[in-house]
Input
Amino acid sequence: MAGRVGAASILAEKDGNENLQRHGSIRKVLHSLVGNDSLLGISARMLDRPKQYRVEDDLNPYQDFLREYALISEYKILCQHLIPGLYMIPSANSGLVWYGVLFVRSGVYKGGIFRITLKISENFPDSTQPSVIFEDKIFHPNINEETQELNVMSVFPVWSKHENHLWQVLEYTSKIFYQISTKNAVNITAAQLYDSDIEKYKEIAQTCVEQSKQNIFHRSNNEDANYIRFQEFNESMHSEARLALLSAEPKMKNISKCGLSWVKEGTLKPCSLTPYKS
Output
């Protein structure tokens, strides 16, 4: 109703005989929206075809921005959780693809360096579960033997943007190497072997580990600028950087306490403690 009154106030006014007189085109005062649509067109749909009008139609021009914002937020949350051994970065070409490397530090797969790719649906966050695909061939109950895709459905049967996050999927990806479960297995052979002959299973797992170590230095056909690449250690090239990393002192030692509000022991007076000076 407010839209109808607002449009009428721009287009016309009442004369003495209560007749509306045109004062010009509404197109001169209403600006275009993103996506080749105008406020005039939207108003027409709202007033003349209310049953066919959908709010989603007008939000379409902004969906790319909303999705990008959601993905940036998800990546920031992932960085805050610091999943041990996991290094992850979005593709330079698409925020819907994330590349990662997982270093397994203990357990049956200790020493493994496994590459993973996280693929996210185009309608994220209003989407289904993301998929996690391993580049290396891994013998594991929860990894499909043919596609090398992780069985995410067993833990996230229903995906909710209000409850589920991408970091949870990646945390689960890491945990399958430390807490092996044969429940809801997609590789039945691996599940049966794990339950019946654990030593044989460990032998095959170590074969996967050794293969992953060899593959990590091989250059992939992936030309994405953010695809994680490794080089074998070269004394002349990397020794200086290695020494700097090993000899670096914790940054906390260089933090000055000057300017902060410190309270002296035994008193409640703010700033009563003498500022520390290095």
About this structure: The chain has a mean pLDDT of 78. The radius of gyration is 30 Å.
